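Re: [ENG-882] Designed sequences occasionally contain unexpected residues at chain ends

Forwarding the minimal case from QA. C-alpha cells:
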C-alpha cells in the first residue's frame, strides 16, 4: 500500500530529478577550476579585471628571413617565416563569460620517447567575441623552448581582462609540434618579437574592419618572455648578445655570422631598438650562464624590467644566471622576484589532467610543475605582481605600494597578501646606477 506521504515524497524526488540537470548545467562554468582562477589565499591583484575576454588566432609571415637550419659552410638561404599568434583582448559585455577549450599537444616532435599527443584544457574567454570600445596597451608574450602560445593562458587571459591586448607567439621551429635544432631559436626569438610588435601596431592603426583596428596602443608595449622567451625579450629591449655568444653560434652553425645582427656592433641591432617597449617581464631568462651577455651588453637594457626566478633553477641558473642578469642590468629600473626552492617552471600553467596519467614520461609533468610549490599558487602571485608592475608602466596606475616592500616575505605579510600567506619569497629592487 502506497501512502499519501510516500506519494508526496516520490513527487518531490521526481521534481528534484528534473531540476538537478539544469542546476548542474547552470553551475558548471563556475564550479570548474580553470587555469588562473584564484585560490583562497590568492593575493589582491590576482583577481580578474572588469573586462570580459575575447580570443582570436592570427597568422603572420615574416618574409626574407635567414634560414639558419639550412646553412652550409656558414652561408644560409632566405625563407618566409610563418608565425601563428593568439590574441586575447578586452571584449564587449555579453552576459556570462563562457569557458573555452584550447587545443594543445604534449611531447616533442622528433622525440620517440615523448611523441606529440593531443590534449585539451579550459580557459575563460570567448572565441571571436566583439572587442570592447577603447584603445589598450599591447603585451607580446614569448614562450620557452619548447613551448607554445598557450603555455601561460592563466596570465594572458588575466591581463586581457585588465585592459590589455595580449599577443602570444608560436615561435616557428620552437614549439612542441615543430621543434627543430636550437640555432633557429637562438637567432629568431628577438626578431620574432619585434616583427609581431610592428605587425600588430599596423593592424591597430589600420582603417579597415580588422578587429584590432583602433584597439591597440602600441606606443605602450610590454614584452613578457619565459626561458628562451626571456632570452629574446631582453635582446629585443636592448641587451645585445655578447661576442662570446656570437662565436658559440658560429661553432653551432658551421661559421654563420647571422647572430651578429643581434650584437652590439650591428647597425641592424641599433636600428631595431623600439622605444614603444616600455616594460619587460623576464621569467627565468636563459642565457647568462652560457655567455649570452656580458657586463657591457647588459648595459643596453634600459627599460623597467621585472625578473622572476626560482632559487634552484637548474636550467637558466640562479646566482650566475638570472640574478646575475638582474645585477648586471645597471641602467634599468629592475625587480627580481624569487621563489625560494623553486626550479625553472615559475611561469607556465599548472600541469593539465592529461599529463597526470600513469605511464607518461616524467618530463611531461615537469614541463609545468614545480617540486616545492603549487603551480596554481605561483600563477596567482605572478598575476598579482605583473598587474602591479605593468599597471604602473603601461596604465599609470598607483600600484607602487605592492612593489616597494620588505625584500624578505617571511619577515612580514606583503601588501595585498592574505595574512601569513607571503612566505618563501624575496623581492629585490634596484634603480638605474645601482650595482
Amino acid at each position: 500500500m502506497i501512502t499519501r506521504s510516500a506519494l508526496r515524497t516520490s513527487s518531490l524526488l521526481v521534481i528534484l530529478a528534473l531540476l538537478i540537470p539544469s542546476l548542474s548545467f547552470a553551475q558548471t562554468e563556475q564550479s570548474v577550476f580553470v587555469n588562473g582562477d584564484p585560490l583562497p589565499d590568492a593575493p589582491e591583484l590576482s583577481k580578474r579585471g572588469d573586462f570580459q575576454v575575447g580570443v582570436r588566432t592570427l597568422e603572420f609571415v615574416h618574409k626574407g628571413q635567414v634560414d639558419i637550419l639550412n646553412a652550409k659552410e656558414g652561408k644560409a638561404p632566405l625563407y618566409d617565416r610563418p608565425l601563428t599568434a593568439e590574441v586575447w583582448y578586452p571584449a564587449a559585455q555579453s552576459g556570462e563569460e563562457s569557458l573555452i577549450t584550447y587545443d594543445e599537444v604534449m611531447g616533442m616532435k622528433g622525440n620517440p620517447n615523448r611523441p606529440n599527443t593531443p590534449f585539451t584544457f579550459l580557459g575563460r574567454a570567448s572565441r571571436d567575441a566583439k572587442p570592447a570600445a577603447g584603445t589598450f596597451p599591447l603585451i607580446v608574450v614569448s614562450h620557452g623552448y619548447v613551448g607554445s602560445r598557450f603555455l601561460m593562458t592563466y596570465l594572458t587571459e588575466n591581463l586581457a581582462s585588465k585592459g590589455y591586448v595580449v599577443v602570444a607567439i608560436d615561435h616557428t621551429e620552437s614549439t612542441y609540434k615543430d621543434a627543430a635544432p636550437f640555432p633557429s631559436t637562438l637567432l629568431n626569438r628577438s626578431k620574432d618579437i619585434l616583427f609581431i610588435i610592428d605587425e600588430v601596431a599596423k593592424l591597430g592603426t589600420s582603417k579597415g574592419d580588422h578587429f584590432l583596428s583602433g584597439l591597440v596602443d602600441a606606443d605602450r608595449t610590454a614584452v613578457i618572455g619565459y626561458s628562451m622567451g626571456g632570452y629574446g625579450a631582453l635582446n629585443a629591449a636592448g641587451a645585445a648578445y655578447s661576442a662570446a655568444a656570437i662565436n658559440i653560434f658560429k661553432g653551432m652553425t658551421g661559421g654563420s655570422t647571422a647572430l651578429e645582427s643581434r650584437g652590439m656592433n650591428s647597425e641592424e641591432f641599433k636600428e631595431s631598438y623600439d622605444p614603444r617597449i616600455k616594460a619587460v617581464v623576464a621569467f627565468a631568462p636563459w642565457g647568462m650562464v652560457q655567455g649570452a651577455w656580458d657586463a657591457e651588453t647588459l648595459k643596453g637594457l634600459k627599460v623597467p624590467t621585472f625578473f622572476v626566478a626560482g632559487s634552484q633553477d637548474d636550467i637558466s641558473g640562479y646566482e650566475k644566471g638570472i640574478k646575475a642578469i638582474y645585477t648586471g642590468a645597471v641602467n634599468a629600473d629592475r625587480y627580481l622576484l624569487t621563489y625560494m626552492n623553486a626550479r625553472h617552471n615559475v611561469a607556465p600553467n599548472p600541469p593539465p589532467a592529461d599529463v597526470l596519467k600513469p605511464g607518461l614520461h616524467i618530463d611531461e609533468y615537469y614541463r609545468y610543475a614545480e617540486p616545492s610549490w603549487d603551480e596554481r599558487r605561483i600563477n596567482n602571485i605572478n598575476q598579482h605582481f605583473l598587474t602591479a608592475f605593468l599597471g604602473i608602466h603601461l596604465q599609470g596606475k598607483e600600484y607602487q605600494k605592492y612593489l616597494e616592500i620588505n625584500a624578505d616575505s617571511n619577515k612580514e605579510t606583503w601588501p595585498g597578501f592574505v595574512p601569513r600567506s607571503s612566505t618563501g619569497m624575496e623581492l629585490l629592487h634596484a634603480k638605474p646606477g645601482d650595482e
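QA comment: On inspection the terminal residues look reasonable. The radius of gyration is 23 Å. Proposing we downgrade this to a documentation issue.
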